[in-house]
């Protein structure tokens, strides 16, 4: 039987969708024809202290480079996510929290309760000296207090910078220091998949390398014993004596909302800066459109708040839309492969939004753990973070969704604030593996290496030719790097770093990064970062890191390591180096394989030929191409002969 390549919009969806196929076309056309009018109209979905009179003012050209949206508008993000819902849905559940331990009781917060918690948290921040514009680093597990913390920052105009709980003390210290953050919010410990994550101890270890740090606010989450120092305060102690009223700070639309660090192809992670009005509008607009969100639906984005997906689709998008959002502390496959679907049943989840890597890991366990659950509440499925292989797509569609639920494959980036290319469940026929078509206001363009614009069905490098409200505004502290990173490869355009194919129907198929960034389990990793960590080891002379195919992670990390003269590689050193990178950056950066290489393939001018290293890692030895231009072509034979494989 031929594989089904096109999945038309199901009839019930076509009949009832908020935005059907014709409406999508009309919206797309309207946003293209008069973007200012379109976005000023859309801006009405938010509550403004002062409504904006101007929409996008931007240029991607060097001479007058700059991006702003709604620059004369005034609003507060927390007021939009909380206060304005109080009259209409104060008693509706805003957050359902599912704990790591399956036997433990979930926690639920109505909009009224969440409002109170956020006001209390905001007053705690104020009591600790946090003021508008200050940076607050958030290093928390997936507990409700993480949502309170983010919204509390937004309420008083402080800029939050969330650091994923899986990052090491070193990585945390770098991120605290880069944005001169004086305050860190953390917890005694985190829990994930039955394991403890020593968050407070990690902050203590980071502190000596983060001199800007003055205060640590510690949430008692697990009750583990942790040492408290002069700079530390228990959240619950301060919270006991503050008021639960806190007026939202009126913010300009272009005031910063948050910083989120992400890896690039060069240098240290960049602090991606998002601002207040445009970001919130994009979060709200895309959450409603792409997930066809309706009141009463329980929406579950399974991402951690340490990533942009958690910011936009666990917190800001759903809460701006008055939704019920589910926050899950644990892992999709713990204690077993049924857990994610048990959570769906327990909370009658309508939409589940997760990463292909999680689906591939679950798929390996077979259909039985899925079929042991009902999933009758589940009406819509989403994926994000990396290309989804058609096999995983079909498994998600047939086995998980029993064929009734559309899958929205959302392509976007930390930089884009929210989804840019994605189907609308009631409007777009689906093709497994394609993120389908651009959302209104999104203008993709494919170009070749030289910048030549490519038309029709073709493959090329994916650029965006126009700004959209959710676009990042700068790299924290380094505006020149912002311009240099995204707008100089193809002048006048935003270059995404992704390769992409467009088919005869105008559908987009993201093929993966074309720069030195790899995508490990839906998380972005800069190869340069892993290399820098490896060469810090006293026995390592040089390292080159590339991606390799990995059937669960999508891409694994393949490291070629040249040791100092006189040193020899061993299994022991191999394991030690993997552990070293875990400690330097975090578990997600630890190489899957390490190959000790006496030499790396270099051009005569000393540049490492990564193309060759990638081919060897992919076991695509037949197409290594011309190696005669290398300074020493014989190194390639050694690399091929001693290729490392997943153990
Ligand atoms: C990179 C961005 C999107 C938020 C989570 C990751 C890849 C993302 C898809 C998708 C194919 C995808 C791209 C992109 N990516 N979504 N649906 N299909 N690739 O955010 O860490 O900033 O990574 O993830 O390569 O550039 P991020």
Automatic annotation (TrEMBL):
<comment type="function">
    <text>Catalyzes the conversion of acetate into acetyl-CoA (AcCoA), an essential intermediate at the junction of anabolic and catabolic pathways. AcsA undergoes a two-step reaction. In the first half reaction, AcsA combines acetate with ATP to form acetyl-adenylate (AcAMP) intermediate. In the second half reaction, it can then transfer the acetyl group from AcAMP to the sulfhydryl group of CoA, forming the product AcCoA.</text>
</comment>
<feature type="binding site">
    <location>
        <position position="513"/>
    </location>
    <ligand>
        <name>ATP</name>
    </ligand>
</feature>
<dbReference type="InterPro" id="IPR025110">
    <property type="entry name" value="AMP-bd_C"/>
</dbReference>
<feature type="domain" description="Acetyl-coenzyme A synthetase N-terminal">
    <location>
        <begin position="24"/>
        <end position="81"/>
    </location>
</feature>
<dbReference type="InterPro" id="IPR032387">
    <property type="entry name" value="ACAS_N"/>
</dbReference>
<feature type="binding site">
    <location>
        <position position="333"/>
    </location>
    <ligand>
        <name>CoA</name>
    </ligand>
</feature>
<dbReference type="GO" id="GO:0005829">
    <property type="term" value="C:cytosol"/>
</dbReference>
<dbReference type="InterPro" id="IPR045851">
    <property type="entry name" value="AMP-bd_C_sf"/>
</dbReference>
<dbReference type="InterPro" id="IPR011904">
    <property type="entry name" value="Ac_CoA_lig"/>
</dbReference>
<dbReference type="InterPro" id="IPR042099">
    <property type="entry name" value="ANL_N_sf"/>
</dbReference>
<protein>
    <recommendedName>
        <fullName>Acetyl-coenzyme A synthetase</fullName>
        <ecNumber>6.2.1.1</ecNumber>
    </recommendedName>
</protein>
<keyword id="KW-0436">Ligase</keyword>
<dbReference type="GO" id="GO:0046872">
    <property type="term" value="F:metal ion binding"/>
</dbReference>
<feature type="binding site">
    <location>
        <position position="582"/>
    </location>
    <ligand>
        <name>CoA</name>
    </ligand>
</feature>
<feature type="binding site">
    <location>
        <position position="498"/>
    </location>
    <ligand>
        <name>ATP</name>
    </ligand>
</feature>
<dbReference type="GO" id="GO:0005524">
    <property type="term" value="F:ATP binding"/>
</dbReference>
<feature type="binding site">
    <location>
        <position position="309"/>
    </location>
    <ligand>
        <name>CoA</name>
    </ligand>
</feature>
<feature type="modified residue" description="N6-acetyllysine">
    <location>
        <position position="607"/>
    </location>
</feature>
<keyword id="KW-0067">ATP-binding</keyword>
<dbReference type="GO" id="GO:0019427">
    <property type="term" value="P:acetyl-CoA biosynthetic process from acetate"/>
</dbReference>
<dbReference type="GO" id="GO:0003987">
    <property type="term" value="F:acetate-CoA ligase activity"/>
</dbReference>
<feature type="binding site">
    <location>
        <position position="524"/>
    </location>
    <ligand>
        <name>ATP</name>
    </ligand>
</feature>
<dbReference type="InterPro" id="IPR020845">
    <property type="entry name" value="AMP-binding_CS"/>
</dbReference>
<feature type="binding site">
    <location>
        <position position="540"/>
    </location>
    <ligand>
        <name>Mg(2+)</name>
    </ligand>
</feature>
<feature type="binding site">
    <location>
        <position position="535"/>
    </location>
    <ligand>
        <name>Mg(2+)</name>
    </ligand>
</feature>
<dbReference type="GO" id="GO:0016208">
    <property type="term" value="F:AMP binding"/>
</dbReference>
<feature type="binding site">
    <location>
        <position position="537"/>
    </location>
    <ligand>
        <name>Mg(2+)</name>
    </ligand>
</feature>
<feature type="domain" description="AMP-dependent synthetase/ligase">
    <location>
        <begin position="83"/>
        <end position="465"/>
    </location>
</feature>
<dbReference type="InterPro" id="IPR000873">
    <property type="entry name" value="AMP-dep_synth/lig_dom"/>
</dbReference>
<keyword id="KW-0007">Acetylation</keyword>
<feature type="domain" description="AMP-binding enzyme C-terminal">
    <location>
        <begin position="529"/>
        <end position="607"/>
    </location>
</feature>
<feature type="binding site">
    <location>
        <position position="521"/>
    </location>
    <ligand>
        <name>CoA</name>
    </ligand>
</feature>
<dbReference type="Pfam" id="PF00501">
    <property type="entry name" value="AMP-binding"/>
</dbReference>
<keyword id="KW-0460">Magnesium</keyword>
<feature type="binding site">
    <location>
        <begin position="409"/>
        <end position="414"/>
    </location>
    <ligand>
        <name>ATP</name>
    </ligand>
</feature>
<keyword id="KW-0547">Nucleotide-binding</keyword>
<dbReference type="Pfam" id="PF16177">
    <property type="entry name" value="ACAS_N"/>
</dbReference>
<feature type="binding site">
    <location>
        <begin position="192"/>
        <end position="195"/>
    </location>
    <ligand>
        <name>CoA</name>
    </ligand>
</feature>
<dbReference type="Pfam" id="PF13193">
    <property type="entry name" value="AMP-binding_C"/>
</dbReference>
<feature type="binding site">
    <location>
        <begin position="385"/>
        <end position="387"/>
    </location>
    <ligand>
        <name>ATP</name>
    </ligand>
</feature>
<comment type="similarity">
    <text>Belongs to the ATP-dependent AMP-binding enzyme family.</text>
</comment>
<keyword id="KW-0479">Metal-binding</keyword>
